[in-house]
Structure formats: structure tokens, C-alpha cells
Here is the input.
Amino acid sequence: MNTKKSLFSLLCVFALVSTCAISVRAQYWEAGTYMGFANYKGELNGQRLMFSQSGPAMGVYSRLNYSRFLAVKASMTYGRIQGTDAVAADPQLRMRNLNFRSDVLELAVTGELNLVPFAIRERKTASPYLFAGVALFHFNPEGEFRGQWYELRGMGTEGQMMDGTPYALWQIAVPLGFGFKFNLSYQANFGIEVGFRKTFTDYLDDVSGTYPDFVELWEYDEMAAVLSYRTPELTGEYGDNPVGELRGDPQTNDLYVFMGLTLSVNLTDRYGLDFDPKYEQFKRKYNDKELLRRQKLKEHQRKRRQALKERRKRLKRIAAERKKRKKQKLEPPVKKRTK
Here is the structure.
């Protein structure tokens, strides 16, 4: 546990320092929303992703675009993960007869690496990207029995409450994934993202180790015993006490996945103001040299347009005079009548 705390502290410090360092030279911010699906990989889906067991996911985020290749994102995401032995391919797993669902709330900070330049003002408006970071998430597995859902952690279905060692509902995760984003306009962006969350717990589904002593657990909490050992629901008899038999796979931690679509709005550019040209006059205090350069360029372009306009007028005037003189030469002289 101390190792986990040290790792979490180190990652938090790294994320804080990185965010502060990036914000000094920030180009612009985005604020956006996320909609998609949540899934998990653990004991109650055969240690593989089963899209038929996906739940909804949604969230909000803020992204700080540091350069054409680097960005950092802070996000808050909600998702529901679930699994059941009823759809397992292995008959032994179906006989285990366990199920769960859990709402996951995640707070994350991730760094993004664009694989090609992403720069709106340079019209480089689409890029695939990779991301990694650190997350703090909360989960609370529930099990269904006869149409009613029960919180499993407080019951200690593997004897944790009798031993006084319940697992923590707040845990650390390492987000890793990829996505693709493209810019719709100076104001809006759209994308798709898939992120895997490596966790340091095997209890997302409340299944990890071995069966506790069924008789002792029954004496401690009858409902905990019923939700711990559910094979009798299918066989109609309790049979032998399963104490010590494997209930899960303690060698493999669970992971969860968020996948979906993103939509964001650009809030600021590198001057600290938005893209609207009407704010140009307020940018002097942020970058006098850049403003002066732009003003000189605009003045040069204005003078050039004016010179071209005057030249066109002069050419039109010359052409009109030439046409008039040519017409006069072609007309026959008018003879005067004599009396």
C-alpha cells in the first residue's frame, strides 16, 4: 500500500509540474464533452472485453494545446461497467453464477502526443494521437439477487469483513489509449477516443481470491453468504463447503475501458483571448511585437491595394483616351457646304 501511495504522490507531482510548465506557454484551451461506452476486463467476462456487456459513459474535459504535437487534458468521466457468468462460454464459469455492476467515477490528467502536426491557424486540422496519464477513480460493485441489487463490498463476499480487510473503493489507474481528432472550425473540434485503464485492484467485480468458509460467513451475514456462493441457485443444493476453492483469478488485476466521441469548443488562443477578430485591439498588452508586425502587414496590404486600385483607374483612363483618339481617326472629315 505504501508503494501505491508513493507512486500516486509521484504521479500527482509530475502532473502538477507538467501542467504548470505547459500553462506558461499555452497556445489555447478547449472545453468539451464525451459520450460513449464503458467496458471492463475481469473475472465475470472471461478476462476479455465483451461488447454485449457495455454500459454508458459520459464526461467533460478541458484540454490545453501546448504545441502542434503536445497537449495535456484534465477530465472527469462517469461510466457503468458490468458482467455476468450467465453469458460465459465455459460451463464451470456459468455454474459459478456470479454477476455484478458498478458505477465508475474517474478524475484523470493525461498527456497527448499528436502523430502529425495539429495547428488550426496553419490549417493542419486533423491528427491521430496517443495518450497516457494518471487517474483517481471510485467504484462500488453491486450484485443482483431476485431482482434487487446489493452493495457487495460491505458484505465481504470473500470474508474481508470478518478479517477486517475490506478493499478500498478509491483506487489509482493509469489511462493509456489512442484517438483521432479534427477541427470543424476555429471554434469547434470533433474526435473519437479509446482509452484503457490499468488498475491496481482485482475487485472491480468483487471477485478475486478464494471462497471463505460458507458456514462462518452465513453466521456472520446470511445475505453475504448467499451472494458469495451462488452455485446452489442452479443445482438446488449446497453440497460441500467450498472454503479455499478459487473464486477468481488473484494473479490478474481488472481493467476498464472508456470509448466514445468527443466534441469541444476552443476557448482561447496563445494571446489569452479568443479567435474573434474584434478582440484584436486588446492583444497589445500580450504581445506588442506581434501586434506591431500585424499592423505593419495590414498597412502594407492596404497601401498595395490602394496602389493597384489607382493603377487600374489610370489604365482604364488611358485605354479610354486611346479608344477615343482611334475613333476620331477612323471618322471621315465633314465637308462644309458652299453657297
User: Anything to note?
Assistant: Residues 17-26, 282-286 have pLDDT under 50 and may be disordered. The chain has two domains: 2-278, 287-333. Strands lie at 28-41, 55-65, 70-84, 99-114, 126-138, 142-145, 148-151, 170-183, 188-199, 255-266. The longest helix spans residues 288-330.
